[in-house]
Amino acid sequence: QVQLLESGGGLVQAGGSLRLSCVVSDRRLATIALAWYRQTPGQTRELVASITREGGEVYADFVKGRSAISRIFANNTFFLQMTALKPEDTGVYYCNVNGNRGSWGQGTQVTVVS
Known about the structure:
Layout: E1 3-7, E2 10-13, E3 18-25, E4 34-39, E5 46-51, E6 57-59, E7 67-72, E8 77-82, E9 91-97, E10 108-113
Parallel strand pairs: 2-10
Antiparallel strand pairs: 1-3, 3-8, 4-5, 4-9, 5-6, 7-8, 9-10
């Protein structure tokens, strides 16, 4: 099973920024699709952003224009840069690889306060 380690969350004021990181073990980033999901209480885990192995990017409507996904192949790490954060962005953020939604890390908590 792939090993994933999320980090970079925290408490920020509305309008602030965070960069979330995901370290991937036992996979080569250049050969797999990557994604970020988030989950809030009472909600299903929802897709935030994804990037194909070719570099094509897709963003959910609720983050479009204020989020960016990127990769550093040498470090086997990918990122979600989040700006203009809103209180409704609060939740636990998880990374995922190659569409395997049965494999998750522990997530990283993002809390946005007004």
